[in-house]
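lol forgot to send this yesterday, sorry. struct tokens for the thing we talked abt
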């Protein structure tokens, strides 16, 4: 399992498609499972091994296996699969997002920022991509850019609690303690039981 990180990030995204009945359909159903990561890896692997190179759904199988590898903490494998998915379908924003997430967990921050930026280019209203790129900027010490991204995420989705919590952390890193406290309190106003913001606010105000 991947190590726990302190930033609040978005969900890893899967791709979906319709496959006609048969063994390939069963493998594809496993490839799209939302709960069992090992089942996704197995199903996608079987689907890919049984389909020709020109099958129009191969890119989606690579995206899904990439997402499963991320959830299993196998970030290098995830990068490999999402890279193939992007080669097959370069305009699918979720593939860029997922690869960016994997790069970030590998601490390859320039590559992560590049992928998140491409995801945003392809889907300009993706508040999660803005927030996750903000994390990568913060991890690389680019605090001003991180604040801009979290603010952009909030502008797109005013109830996105993760962005308030993450912006609060960056405000704290920048020494803007009152602004940090305001963001933590705003997160808790929307989600009173949101533990990351509870912990951050408690630490800040003690």
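and heres what i got for the seq, position by position
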């Amino acid at each position: 399992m991947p190590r726990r990180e302190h930033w609040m990030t978005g969900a890893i995204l899967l791709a979906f498609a319709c496959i006609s009945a048969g063994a390939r359909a069963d493998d594809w159903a496993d490839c799209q499972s939302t709960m069992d990561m090992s089942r996704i890896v197995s199903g996608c692997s079987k689907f890919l091994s049984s389909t020709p190179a020109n099958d129009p759904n191969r890119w989606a199988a690579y995206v899904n296996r990439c997402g499963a590898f991320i959830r299993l903490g196998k970030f290098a494998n995830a990068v490999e699969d999402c890279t193939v998915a992007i080669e097959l379908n370069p305009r699918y924003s979720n593939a860029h997002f997922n690869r960016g997430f994997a790069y970030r967990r590998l601490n390859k921050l320039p590559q992560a920022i590049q992928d998140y930026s491409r995801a945003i280019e392809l889907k300009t209203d993706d508040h999660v991509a803005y927030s996750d790129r903000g994390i990568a900027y913060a991890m690389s010490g680019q605090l001003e850019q991180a604040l801009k991204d979290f603010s952009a995420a909030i502008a797109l989705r005013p109830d996105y609690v993760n962005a308030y919590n993450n912006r609060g952390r960056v405000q704290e890193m920048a020494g803007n303690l009152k602004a940090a406290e305001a963001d933590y309190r705003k997160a808790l106003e929307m989600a009173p039981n949101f533990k990351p913001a509870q912990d951050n606010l408690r630490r800040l105000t003690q």
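Confidence is low (pLDDT under 50) at residues 18-22. anyway ping me if u want another try
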